[in-house]
Amino acid sequence: MDFSLTGKVALITGGSRGIGRATALGFARAGADVVVTSRKLPDLEEVAEEIRGLGSKSLAVASHIGRLDDINALVNKVNEEFGRIDILINNAGTSPAIAPILDVDERLWDAIMNLNLKGLVFLSQAVARVMKEHDGGKIINVASIDGLRPEPMPNGTYAISKAGVLMATRVMAVEWAQYKIRVNAVAPGNVHTRLGDSRFEVIAGYEEELVKRTPMKRIAEPDEMVGAMIYLASDASSFVTGQTIVVDGGTMVA
Description:
Elements: E1 9-13, H1 18-29, E2 33-38, H2 41-53, E3 58-62, H3 68-82, E4 87-90, H4 106-132, E5 137-142, H5 156-176, E6 181-188, H6 194-202, H7 206-213, H8 226-233, E7 244-247
């Protein structure tokens, strides 16, 4: 089976840190040229320089995926620079505050949904139009096990957004298979990222509680998501679409 990404162009949102950065470097090692995007250009430039150090081409683009104008400008820039987009990793996500559904206000709801779901769908749409012209491609959405079942802490709006990501994955997979575009998702469990670790600062003892709930008895590192990403982005998964790979250390089956 061919896990190589040589000759492919990948666009990764939320690429400056965490799972996005780990995936960008993993894809470069697998041979891909990688475009990384997030809101802060200096952080992206550091990742792009690391990618170039691995022998791949890289482009850093500051963009807010929750804004349609930014999405269109981003896709146009990548297409102009590389002439194609073979792989899209929808990794950007947010959960700026923790609140039970009873207390969620419109501003918090919109902040989460605009980036986690609306931006993901419309970026996928824009990229799919490019992929159609180049014999297909692969789209991988970073969801969460929170989209499969609510987390113990009051973070319901985030969970709802990720459940939407899972359904969006299935819908796009069905509609775009005719264009040779495969769409899948990775649903991480608890991972040491800035967003993930922010929960531990809010609720004392929460990290220990999650470790107890995880059969492998630890929190994952971002690098541990990369294998699933490469599988779905490569020809090794050539007959896989509309699926979600859960990478959670056994939490969902415990």
